[in-house]
Write a structure and sequence with these properties.
The chain is built from 11 helices and 12 strands. It is of the alpha/beta class.
């Protein structure tokens, strides 16, 4: 017997009637008339060549053939129903899940998302904030925008934002330095950094201060906190050049020296090599590259 549309409709009618042992209750469940259900069941019996239900005065009973068919019919229709729901859910509701460094998300990505959703209103986007590069082993993440090196194993890496670091401070802190400060004038003040003391040493060397050793160097392992401490004048901070432009334009922070240092890491869009790139990620990547080409800094 071919399971065409008509047969599936008749099997669905039989399953509801057999489970409820009532044409009336099954009709309410399926939003059809009892007469329509009776018609479908009778046609199914004719198609199979065996009786499935016995119609009594005020009730029905399943025949031996009906008893055998009902549980398999219920199971098969349940499998089909779940599959259809999963396909619909995947198409309408599944979001693109991207692991994002928290500060990059707040300062660079999130302010731009209105443009992404305006261009792709059908794509849900779920941001997973993490300080470490995306771990794709559990399969929950589609991509990551993380501060990392560009040579991570088993991933495709696309540059998003350079990782150069520069020294910034508040105008009030700058006024506490000599009128024409040199980089060495910073050494007696509180200096703050996020990643490695080697980055701080590399900046002083690039600034012409040689292998200067700061007296008060403090690691602050959160970009939001590091920026806040600099804004409040608690010291000079070695910070992302590409994520401080707004504060420099507004004058909330200043850069006493036009010196940058490359720490060897940057912000990369990464995705696993062993998975094909899907439609959502392809469109998100294209939008991201457009944003970078149009206005890379904040």
């Amino acid at each position: 017997m071919d399971l065409d549309t008509g047969t599936l409709t008749r099997l669905r009618a039989f399953e509801a009637v057999g489970r409820n042992l009532s044409f009336a209750r099954a009709a309410q469940e399926l939003y059809v008339t009892p007469a329509a259900l009776s018609h479908h069941v009778r046609h199914l019996e004719e198609e199979l060549g065996v009786p499935l239900v016995t119609r009594l005065h005020r009730r029905i009973e399943l025949t031996a053939h009906g008893v055998r068919l009902l549980p398999e019919c219920t199971r098969a229709l349940g499998i089909l129903g779940r599959a259809v729901r999963e396909v619909k859910s995947a198409d309408r509701q599944e979001a693109l899940t991207v692991s994002v460094a928290p500060y990059f998300s707040a300062r660079w990505l999130t302010p731009r998302l209105a443009r992404f959703w305006a261009r792709h209103p059908d794509i849900g986007l779920r941001l997973h904030h993490a300080y470490q590069p995306a771990d794709f082993r559990d399969g929950d993440l589609d991509a990551g925008i993380n501060w990392c090196r560009g040579d991570l194993p088993d991933v495709h890496s696309t540059p998003v934002l350079r990782g150069d670091l520069t020294m910034v401070c508040s105008p009030g802190f700058l006024r506490g330095l000599p009128a024409r400060p040199s980089p060495r004038d910073l050494l007696g003040h509180r200096l703050m950094y996020e990643f490695r003391t080697e980055d701080l040493a590399a900046w002083f060397e690039a600034a012409g201060a040689g292998t200067a050793v700061p007296e008060r160097a403090e690691r602050v392992d959160d970009s939001h906190t590091l920026r806040r401490l600099a804004l409040d004048g608690h010291g000079a901070a070695l910070f992302f050049s590409g994520l401080i432009h707004d504060d420099l334009r507004s004058g909330a922070l200043v850069r006493p020296f036009d010196v940058e240092v490359d720490p060897g890491s940057a912000y990369y869009l990464i995705r696993p090599k062993d998975r094909p790139i899907g439609r959502r990620l392809r469109l998100f990547t294209a939008w991201l590259m457009h944003e970078i080409a149009t206005d890379p800094y904040v």
